[in-house]
């Protein structure tokens, strides 16, 4: 039932998942068109096609909606208590366990940096309605406290 609530709320912006997964807001230097000017080439993410972005999102959604992940994720967030920093750290650690292996199969370095780079790599595709829809769903899956507090119910 909680998962259904998570699937249905679409009130957050498309880039909120970046903050949720990395706990670091995007700086202006990470916006499309400026990344190559501000970041050393070794830090630039691989370029992803629309098809690759959709594949990435599908793989992340499958992993994050798996009952075993959801159970572990919710239990860990509850155990973290009300401390926002601790919750963010726990969320980041659990999500990276899933994200890094998936991202490495798409050409990213197998590290925490890959998560940040993937957020930059999808920016050119955020105007695509399907990418935006999946992005919102990822945001909801990774921020259950926010979604629950908004009282969202329904299906996707």
Provide an overview of this structure.
It is a single chain. The protein has 156 residues and is mainly alpha-helical. 63% of the residues lie in helices and 0% in strands. The chain is built from 9 helices and no strands. It has helices at residues 2-8, 16-22, 35-38, 50-65, 67-80, 84-104, 112-121, 129-142, 144-149. Helix 2 packs parallel to helix 8 and helix 6 (84-104) crosses helix 7 (112-121). It is globular, with a radius of gyration of 15 Å. The two termini are 13 Å apart. Residues 1-37 and 151-156 have low confidence and may be disordered.
Q: What is this structure's SSE topology?
A:
Blueprint: H1 2-8, H2 16-22, H3 35-38, H4 50-65, H5 67-80, H6 84-104, H7 112-121, H8 129-142, H9 144-149
Helix pairs in contact: 2-8, 4-6, 4-8, 5-6, 6-7
List keywords for this structure.
globular; 156 residues; mainly alpha; 9 helices
Q: Roughly what percent helix?
A: 55-70%
- Strand percentage lies at under 5%
Average residue-wise pLDDT: 75
Mind telling me the C-alpha Rg? 15 Å
Give start-end ranges of low-pLDDT stretches: 1-37, 151-156
Helix and strand content put the structural class at: mainly alpha
Number of E-type strands: 0
- Characterize the main sheet: none
Number of helical segments with 4 or more residues: 9
The ordered string of helix (H) and strand (E) elements is HHHHHHHHH
Please give the alpha-carbon distance between the first and last residues. Answer: 13 Å
Choose one word for the global shape.
globular
């Amino acid at each position: 039932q909680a998962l259904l609530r998570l699937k249905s709320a679409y009130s957050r912006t498309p880039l909120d998942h970046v903050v949720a997964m990395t706990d670091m807001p995007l700086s202006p230097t990470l916006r499309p068109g400026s990344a190559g000017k501000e970041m050393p080439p070794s830090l630039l993410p691989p370029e992803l096609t629309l098809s690759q972005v959709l594949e990435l999102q599908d793989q992340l959604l499958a992993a994050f909606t798996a009952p075993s992940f959801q159970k572990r994720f919710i239990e860990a967030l509850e155990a973290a208590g009300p401390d926002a920093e601790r919750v963010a750290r726990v969320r980041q650690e659990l999500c990276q366990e899933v994200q890094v292996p998936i991202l490495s199969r798409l050409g990213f370095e197998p590290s925490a940096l890959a998560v940040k780079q993937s957020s930059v790599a999808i920016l050119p595709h955020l105007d695509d309605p399907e990418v935006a829809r999946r992005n919102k769903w990822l945001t909801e899956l990774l921020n259950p406290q926010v979604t629950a507090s908004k009282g969202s119910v329904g299906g996707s």
